[in-house]
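Q: Sequence in, structure out?
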Amino acid sequence: MGLGYVITKEPDDFGVMEHRLTTGQLLQIVKIPGPLACYWLGKSEIDTPPTKAN
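A: Exactly. Output:
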């Protein structure tokens, strides 16, 4: 099973889409509204500790 995500324009567009490839593999794709995806990405950058340069 493959996993993925898609960022959508609709603010209330949450859910899981399923798609079967021609190979028979099932994909599960999570739909995430754009503003929420931007928030999560920004938050993860703020919360990640800086790395040390070698």
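DSSP finds one helix and three strands in the chain.
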